[in-house]
Design brief:
Radius of gyration: 19 Å
CATH class of the largest domain: Alpha Beta
Strand order of the largest sheet: 1-2-4-3
Distance between the termini: 21 Å
CATH superfamily of the largest domain: RNA 3'-terminal phosphate cyclase domain
CATH architecture of the largest domain: Alpha-beta prism
Structural class: alpha/beta
Oligomer: single chain
Length: 335
């Protein structure tokens, strides 16, 4: 049983997602305690609970002590079979964050995995489903993992109700990455969306226009969608030859569409100006896959966040790897 202190470093849901996912793929049981201890509402929330229960289903595992508000959970993994799964977060909790836990074991399933996940698709403090598709999944292709996704319904806060469909192919050998310099100039694309309630105010167009005033955008799209709650979001992605940089921003009541667009554009510009090959969000999301790869990796990231440091710490508990950082270059070395 691997013991994980859930209050370590940033003490958030990242610890839970990575630990449960790696527990399943390594077949090493784990116990997580002090879950989100330093947060205003400690313990498991609906989004975390949906994630760990989904992982347990995917790998026929056994959970002990789980529930809303639980500060300790034990997990014993079983066989990862693949197949079809319907998962409902039950709130506007992020479907992309649930996927962060689910994808780690799914790549080692005996057969293809099909997942329909209902919840929030474009919500604050989490990747949009656009970022998942246009940045995360593109990096997965580089390491030899095939993941396809489609946003079937858009879900904004507070009602959620969005749905993403994800298909994961079982992966063979996972390739290491050595990407420390970009190989080409950026080609940038924007995807701006808003609920149909906001069409008359041209929210999606205004988000897109504001973003284009901060960074050069080569292609853009504007979409209005039916949703349970009014909401909006914009996702930006820049392909730089051998790598992808992304950003996103989500609207809320009282936040002008222009602010949403500029927020996403400034985040992307910061990553582009840094010379890095991975934005700060992708920096921590890629780490479990580099640790599972057949060889050493080295990547240049825009920022070493607490999420990133936390993920390194958790991964080293489960896998025989060692991470080192020098000038925002992360090395993943096999022990």
């Amino acid at each position: 049983m691997i013991d994980i202190d859930g209050s370590y470093m940033e003490g958030g849901g990242q610890i839970i997602r990575t630990a449960i996912g790696l527990s399943a793929v390594t077949q090493k049981p784990c116990r997580i305690y002090n879950i989100r201890k330093g947060r205003p509402e400690p313990g498991l929330k609906a989004q975390h609970l949906a994630g760990i229960r989904a992982v347990s289903r995917v790998c026929s595992g056994k959970l002990k002590g789980y529930g809303i508000g639980s500060e300790k959970v034990e997990f014993r993994p079983g066989s990862i079979d693949g197949g079809n799964y319907n998962i409902n977060v039950g709130t506007a909790g992020s479907v992309a964050l649930v996927l962060q836990a689910l994808l780690i074991p799914s790549i080692r399933a005996k057969k293809k995995t099909f997942m329909d996940i209902t919840g929030g698709t474009h919500v604050i403090r989490s990747p949009t489903t656009g970022y998942f598709r246009h940045v995360f999944c593109e990096f997965m292709k580089l390491v030899g993992i095939e993941i396809t996704s489609e946003t079937l319904r858009y879900g904004y806060y507070p009602k959620g109700g969005g749905k993403i469909r994800v298909v994961v192919e079982p992966a063979g050998n996972i390739k290491p990455l050595n990407i420390t310099e970009r190989e080409g100039p950026p080609e940038t694309e924007a995807w701006s969306n808003a609920s149909s309630f906001l069409r008359e105010r041209e929210v999606a167009e205004r988000q897109n226009k504001a973003a284009s005033e901060t960074v050069s955008i080569d292609k853009n799209s504007v979409k209005y969608v039916d949703s349970l709650s009014p909401g909006s979001s914009i996702t930006l992605a820049a392909r730089c030859g051998n790598c992808f940089l992304g950003s996103g921003s989500v609207g809320r009541r009282g936040k002008p569409a222009e602010v949403v667009g500029r927020e996403a554009a400034r985040a992307l510009k910061k990553s582009m100006d840094s010379g890095a090959c991975f934005d700060s969000h992708m920096a921590d999301q890629i780490l479990p896959y580099l640790a599972l790869a057949d060889g050493n990796s080295k990547i240049n990231v825009s920022e070493i966040t607490n999420h990133c440091k936390t993920n390194m710490w958790v991964i080293e508990k489960f896998l025989p790897v060692r991470f080192s950082v020098e000038n925002n270059v992360i090395s993943c070395l096999k022990s």
